[in-house]
Amino acid sequence: MNNYHSLVLDQKESTKHGEHSFPVQKYITTLSADCPVVTTHWHEEAELTMLIEGDCTYQIDLKEYHIQAGDLVFIPPLILHSIYNKLNNEILSETFVFHLNFLGANTTDICSTQYLTPIMNLEFSIPFIISPEHKAYCSLKDIYYQISNLYAEKSYGYELAIKGLLLQAIFLLLQTREKTNSPNVSNKSDNLRSVLDYIELNYAKNLTISELADICNFSDYHFMRFFKKHMNMTCIEYINNLRLEKSIELFKQGNTSIVDVSLSVGFNNLSYFHRAFKKKYHMTPLSYIKLTHP
């Protein structure tokens, strides 16, 4: 099994990370001028990332953080997050995505009830960014490298060691836990998650701004400003981008009718689909089909 994956994520992620009995997966993410963004998304798992090369901007729970090479990033479960390569430099990061149930969050002992479950329920927050100035940085960096080496070598019992190291990492992060976000920020996150969920379920339909604004009880104007501010793109750009990603999935599954795929993902204008596809992927749909189905 290939243990190194590209971390390209959709809004509410449904990807299975790792195996059922060992829900830990390593990902390699690269961003460049041609592919500068990992769009806003969230998932049930937590993730621990080290930025290997470059500088980038993380948006976590609607707040922006500048990240430099060497920094560690911890994302709790269910938190909205995205990555932006605003400087157009080469970005390389390594991420471990893991479910807190693997660490015992679904049990009834004190570790679960007092520490892990509150993290999953967002009852308190722990630092998202661990830079060299953070007092736990050196210890967490050492733990991260141990996890990475164990995952690569897979010596007998490595799963036990990784589980123990992840628990140590959580322990260190908890020592500098912070207050939870204000209700105002939480409400904004909930609104954005609700909109992204709705788009994910209805992207193939003729979605309107008014329809999406109603989900948040916003005016059309307020909604468009809200979406652009927190997604770094307009709502229409986001929907079209999602539709194009869905079209790629259909082509990969063997659907070779460009007209059918275009209609299936919500593009009713075939010429517009061609132009949008070429702009995003630097090739026409037909060229992509020939490339992937020789």
TrEMBL record:
CDD domains: cupin_RmlC-like
Keyword presence, Ligase: no
PROSITE patterns (alphabetical): HTH_ARAC_FAMILY_2 (PS01124)
Keywords of the record: DNA-binding, Transcription, Transcription regulation
InterPro entries: Cupin_2, Homeodomain-like_sf, HTH_AraC, RmlC-like_jellyroll, RmlC_Cupin_sf, Tscrpt_reg_AraC-type_HTH
Pfam families documented for this protein: Cupin_2, HTH_18
Domain HTH araC/xylS-type: 193-291
UniProt keyword annotation of Membrane present: no
GO molecular function, one term: sequence-specific DNA binding
Protein name, entry field: AraC family transcriptional regulator
Organism in which the protein naturally occurs: Butyrivibrio fibrisolvens
Top-level taxonomy: Bacteria, Bacillati, Bacillota, Clostridia, Lachnospirales
